[in-house]
Design a protein that fits this description.
Length: 274
Amino acid sequence: MSTIFDQMVILGNGVQMPQFGLGTYKMTEPEQTMQAVEKAVSLGYRAIDTASIYENEQVVGEAIRNTGIAREDLFVTSKVWNDEQGYDETLRAFERSLTRLDMNYLDLYLTHWPVTGSYVDTYRAIERLYDEKLIRATGVSNHHEAHLREIFAIANIRPMVNQIEVHPRLTQEPLRQFCSEHQIAVTSWSPLARGQILEDATLMAIAAQHGKTVAQVIIRWHIQNGLIVIPKSISFNRIKENSEIVDFELTLSDMALINALNQDERTGQNPDSF
């Protein structure tokens, strides 16, 4: 039987990226982080998402090594933080992340936020890392269409991934459509809206119909929308539960009801004002 871990998204350069993975935002307690990553990988997770600002790269790297899984069988993402941006600064920030992770390369490296006056040069540095085969794919995070168009104007290699806040209250359909038209895969961060929608009546009714939890329904919605999704949890039960989503399918009616929950409501910052 296939699992969610078998499902891949083909990036613009042909690299296969797991459609489902583990986010590590706010995993700051080393022992908890170590256990969460190790348990996730033992279950079958092969994509791990971190960032320099999370201050857990060193622990994440150690946990990955502890699993005994070959490096080439994992997909590791990190990001350059706002005060590290600019061309030379990004190259140095990448080296620091690679050292903390104790790896020879990253699968994906992202600009964390589009810092005015810096994000274009930051992406140019990411292109260089790609040319030097230090990363397998290029990308950005929290970039709106206008930010992406600015990058298109100078890029030799367009971003392959845009990691943005997406959940049923913030569906971001116009931006997702723009990304699709330009072969940019979308990764959903805060896919469960930081738990704020787990008691939504519509979602609870759909979950009851399928004999699933609301979280499983939301993750399934992301998957059926072709999104890459990286729910974060330190609970072994939730890490396992989040992955048990291939034994049911949301109907077209379910999908429409969930899409209709959109209120353009963010749990995080707006990239235009952050």
